[in-house]
Amino acid sequence: MASVEVRSVRKSAALRPRGPTKVQPARSMSLDYKYSAARAGVEAGPAPNGVGRRAAADEEEGEAVPPEGDADSPYSSKATTTEEEGSAGGGGEANSASSAAATPRRPSPAAAAGPSPRDTRWGDTSSYGAKKKNRVFCQLPNGDWALCTVITTSGDESVLKVPEGKVLRLKTESLQPANPEILDGVDDLMQLSYLSEPSVLYNLQYRYSQDMIYTKAGPVLVAVNPFKKVALYGNEYIKAYRNKTMDSPHVYAIADSALREMKSDEVNQSIIISGESGAGKTETAKIAMQYLASLGGGSGIEYEILQTNPILEAFGNAKTLRNDNSSRFGKLIEIHFSTTGRICGAMIQTFLLEKSRVVQCAVGERSYHIFYQLCAGAPTTLREKLNLKKVDEYKYLKQSCCYSIAGVDDAEMFRAVTEAMNIVHISKEDQDNVFAMVSAVLWLGDVSFTIIDNENHVEITVEEAAETVSRLLGCSIEDLNLVLSKRHMKVNNENIVQKLTLTQATDTRDALAKALYASLFEWLVEQINKSLSVGKRRTGRSISILDIYGFESFDKNSFEQFCINYANERLQQHFNRHLFKLEQEEYVEDGIDWAKVEFEDNQDCLNLFEKVWACTFSSLLSSSRNHKYKPLGLLSLLDEESTFPNATDLTFANKLKQHLDTNSCFRGERGKAFTVRHYAGEVAYDTSGFLEKNRDLLHMDSIQFLAKCKLSIPQTFASKMLAQSDNLESIPYRPSVADSQKLSVAMKFKGQLFQLMQRLESTTPHFIRCIKPNNLQLPAIYGQELVLQQLKCCGVLEVVRISRSGYPTRMTHQKFARRYGFLLLEDVASQDPLSVSVAILHQFNILPEMYQVGYTKLFFRTGQVWQP
Ligand SMILES: Nc1ncnc2c1ncn2[C@@H]1O[C@H](COP(=O)(O)OP(=O)(O)OP(=O)(O)O)[C@@H](O)[C@H]1O
């Protein structure tokens, strides 16, 4: 296969500092070969001209300094690189076994070793040339690209043979050249001679059809969801990647690089997994965890870490129209390692659980799995204790008319979840409490109201639902009635009690159900973290795996999509910074010849979301501090509007139009809508429900109600909520609004994202982009348009373009001289490291286009330096 052959070329082309290396015949210009030749006493050829361009005598250790972010940026502190920090995006290919396959096309040293089957294919260049010219991509009427053969060309038209033997006549200019057959299915897109959209699509499809779901795109791993079991995992594969007997692109290879780099560079690592809903992020995260657990296991804690998955999935995943097991929260799992490289603990952070699903979900979707699992799998005693009914008898679950998932046994899953809870040391008593809360949430949805006067005021109806809720929470029926039908208010410093109408009471009930469930989820994560905490054994070395919701654009986009897409802008910025910005800045700072490659920067869109306050000229003249600034970003405008008691979703939409209409990433739409130009495309948001969801108010009465419950778990939830409301005082610019119990959802999320980015900034990132090949969740269907749109969204094509033209491997002159100086024929002990580096390059006749000499470092094209 082409990929294997190219790989072997790459391996022999790399510079190997130690260990036995096969002697290659002369003529090769690669450092690896030269190293081998030198060891074997083979004379190297003459030095090429032009080596050492722009070399400078500054020999100090270089530190890449990113540009200072603005004050509102999570990147305000300097990111540092270690001496050997490898390729673009850290995970880079120079450091990764599989990724190093990305060798630019060049004369192969293997070619000199005599003809191989591959060489004979290349031997007859005339027929090859003719064939190559004949292979083209043409666009079919349905928009798909097809690989076809040119039969004849006359004038500006060509006659083509398309797959399935059909013949088409098309304008020659509409055709795109195809790569030679030898490049079909290469395992790194960087190897494609023509990097056009159809070539990339074809290459991924070619591989996908043979269950090769992983492909490198320079430093990024692309994973196409197979929607079926593929024979790529398990102990044999883990062993093969660990021993490096297998190096085709794989999540294992990425996890392996992360592990190795963490140990060798002593820098924390991150594996950042992104993609649309259903693209395979969670599965990919689990596969990475499996590899790390296998290599770093031993103490048993790795098994506990793996067992957090069924728990988090039960409580945080749900069936949606796009994915039967969709994570409705973002997750970062930080796996800690001891000094000997063994896993010694973990820490999980979750982001923005979709609370609204608890009380409302679309037809054909389900609420959180645990509701169905509990009802299906609870043993009789528990069932009686919790007064469980069938799922189709609960109002919250009934509304979507969807109770089961094809091929999933909820009762069996319940057993797996309780088993996992045992493994992560959640006590039997705590488990009972957890399930009591789950049941209480379900029963809350069934609490109904009786209208008691002609102003539509209500009281709860005392029946099975209300009685069960009060028993499960440990409160009296009176207290439950009070919290759901009345509200304490302070008006002009006087305490008054307001009766609630049916709508207000229903909203209060649903808000309580959502808060209970979200608190339960948070509490569970805390318990898991306690169980996995590393305590004294902590060394500070870790690999973090980020599995966060991908960019979403539906027919109707609401507050949830707004937050999710904002998170994706942040992540895209991180991706851009590491793969485009920092990379190119380092070239410029080190003074190498480099023509800047443009890329789609999403800074403007991020500013649209995040810009906090702008100073206005008129306000500068005012002495009042509050008048000096006005909120300017979507988030701060939303936050400000959320604090006005009379504000509505329409006033919010109008405010956006008034302040942001000149912003190129924003467009006001009719009524309550607005459009944002995201890096991944335009999304129209409907502001209906924005303010309420952002305020996410749980009235103080509800918190006090939970605090009064006899069971300890609702009391714990209440203390947590009260603590959050106390924290409000410390938030600058937060207008004081009597009803606000806590920070708005958007602001809290922004804070979480900033912290996340700061954490990720201190790691070497490894990026995995998951691709969903069809919307049907079925195997063997590859929708070109869908795939292309995702590749564009996540900048895969740009990464390949930039990586191909860049120098992903670098090494300081000191390190290079130390490592390879002994190969020099002359004694260089007294020379400076830069001179030694240049001398090595000269002596071994390295092709000038394969490297650049910077002030502090040498920069190499892919595959020129082999890194153990
Ligand atoms: N490597 C794989 N092998 C086999 N099946 C897979 C693989 N990756 C994903 N799948 C299938 O695709 C489904 C969706 O994957 P997953 O839940 O990981 O998507 P996701 O990107 O995390 O989606 P969401 O954002 O909705 O949580 C899985 O339930 C599984 O059936």
What's the arrangement of secondary structure elements?
Elements: H1 2-13, H2 31-39, H3 117-123, H4 125-134, E1 135-139, E2 145-154, E3 157-161, E4 167-171, E5 176-177, H5 197-208, E6 214-217, E7 220-224, H6 235-242, H7 251-265, E8 269-274, H8 281-296, H9 301-306, H10 308-316, E9 317-318, E10 326-327, E11 330-337, E12 343-351, H11 369-377, H12 380-385, H13 395-398, H14 410-423, H15 428-446, E13 449-451, E14 458-460, H16 464-473, H17 477-485, E15 486-491, E16 494-499, H18 502-532, E17 541-547, H19 559-589, H20 603-610, E18 613-615, H21 617-621, E19 629-631, H22 634-642, H23 649-660, E20 666-668, E21 673-678, E22 681-686, H24 690-695, H25 700-708, H26 712-727, H27 745-761, E23 764-771, H28 784-793, H29 796-805, E24 809-812, H30 813-820, H31 833-843, E25 851-853, E26 857-860
Parallel strand pairs: 7-23, 8-17, 8-23
Antiparallel strand pairs: 1-2, 1-5, 2-3, 3-4, 6-7, 9-10, 11-12, 11-17, 13-14, 15-16, 18-19, 20-21, 21-22, 24-26, 25-26
Helix pairs in contact: 7-8, 10-11, 10-14, 11-14, 15-16, 15-18, 19-20, 19-27, 22-23, 25-26, 30-31
This protein binds adenosine-5'-triphosphate.
